[in-house]
Specification:
Order of helices and strands: EEHEEHHHHEEEHHEEEHH
CATH superfamily of the largest domain: PAS domain
Structural class: alpha+beta
Largest sheet: 6 strands, antiparallel
Strand content: 5-15%
Shape: rod-shaped
Low-confidence stretches: 45-79
Number of domains: 4
Radius of gyration: 51 Å
CATH class of the largest domain: Alpha Beta
Number of strands: 10
Length: about 375
């Protein structure tokens, strides 16, 4: 009958050298119990037969008994890692979305500001162009009416246009918009002097138009005169000029001049003058409303972004704490089971992969417990 081979294994907990049957140790998967303190001893089962055959009477070198503070000095599983699971979740689910949302918010606000700028420039130019066309129509209509009247009243003196010929004045001087008006002036006479013959201001009638307007307009005269004198070519002219009131405020007018064609004995032109602010007032109001809407939208975006960041941060922090808490509990339970604490309770419950891990540890715990029970029964036989 073959002699049974034995091994001598030292317990790392109490230092006791245990004599173990090599075949039984191999059958138990390299797991046995200390006969002195009952601590779980785990060896390499595959090495047991070879070790027994080569040196059955030689005990392996006993491991030194651990010091009381050995468990505390052992580095935890999380040491040495640069970033834990909670940190990774914060980066992936908080930092990255935060950057993307911030970039999207900045781009959206930039688009809103760009839209305001486009509205300002486009709307002002559009309204100015449309208003200029309307003023040109007023000017052409007034020129036609003046031509018809003068063609039917050939002996009317131009000196009487503004005072005596009331019917004519109603045609030559008309109200345009709120503060705009039309007027009539004559091209240069024999003395090369331009004169106004029908105007809302009687003081301008009959005087040297160039000299008088130069005094009134100052720096804005050149732009004014360029438009007025352009009708000498027989074509209409339009443009804007500025003038300064008594309080020093600068105003800008838009003007259209149209020659009165088909008359004998003199050449005249109809002038339509309207303050630019009159037809840009609604545009300014629209621009103000647009800026207010953009401002409120900008603040709404910032507030929404802030609330979203808080919500995402809270969710990530809570969910990260739950997950890491469960993983730490399972890690602690696995550590205690590995040191022989078979009565460790695993209370982690979850319907996901963490729950699967908890069930696997429970099965491992039960398998180790059954192996220990078999060893105890075999030893007691």
């Amino acid at each position: 009958m073959a002699e049974s081979k034995t091994l001598k294994v030292a317990c790392q907990a109490c230092g006791t050298t245990n004599t173990i049957d090599a075949d039984a140790l191999a059958e138990s998967g390299g797991i046995t119990l200390c006969t002195s303190c009952g601590n779980l001893i785990q060896t390499e089962a595959s090495d047991a037969p070879a070790a027994a055959a080569s040196a059955p009477d030689i005990a392996p070198e006993a491991a030194p008994a651990p010091s009381p503070g050995m468990d505390e000095s052992r580095p935890s599983a999380g040491m040495g890692r640069r970033m834990g699971l909670r940190g990774k979740m914060a980066v992936l689910f908080l930092a990255v979305p935060l950057v993307l949302m911030t970039v999207a918010g900045i781009f959206y606000v930039w688009q809103l500001n760009r839209m305001v700028s486009i509205v300002k420039n486009t709307s002002t130019d559009m309204v100015t162009r449309i208003s200029g066309e309307l003023m040109a129509q007023y000017s052409r209509q007034a020129a036609i009416q003046v031509r018809r009247y003068l063609a039917d009243h050939q002996f009317v003196k131009k000196e009487d246009f503004n005072e005596k010929e009331h019917e004519f004045k109603l045609l030559a001087v008309q109200k345009v918009g709120l503060t705009g008006f039309t007027c009539l002036y004559a091209l240069p006479d024999a003395g090369n002097v331009w004169r106004m013959w029908a105007h809302v201001d009687p003081d301008l009638v009959g005087v040297d138009l160039a000299a008088e307007m130069k005094k009134l307009l100052g720096a804005g005269f050149d732009d004014y005169w360029k438009i007025v004198s352009a009708v000498a070519t027989g074509k209409s002219a339009r443009g804007s000029y500025s003038w300064t009131d008594k309080d020093g405020n600068i105003h800008e007018n838009f003007m259209v001049c149209t020659p009165v064609e088909g008359l004998e004995g003199g050449q005249y032109a109809v002038m339509v003058v309207t303050p630019i602010v009159e037809f840009t007032r609604d545009v300014k109001r629209l621009q103000t409303r647009t800026e207010n809407v953009v401002s409120s939208t900008r603040w709404a975006i910032l507030i929404f972004l802030f609330i979203t960041i808080l919500a995402i941060g809270g969710i990530v922090a809570y969910y990260g704490a739950v997950i890491t808490g469960k993983l730490k509990a399972l890690t602690d339970a696995a550590d205690r089971i590995s040191t022989g604490e078979m009565e460790t309770q695993i209370t982690v419950k979850s319907d996901d992969e963490i729950g699967d891990l908890a069930n696997a540890i429970i099965r491992m715990q039960e398998s180790i417990r059954l192996s220990i029970d078999r060893l105890k029964r075999r030893r007691n036989r």
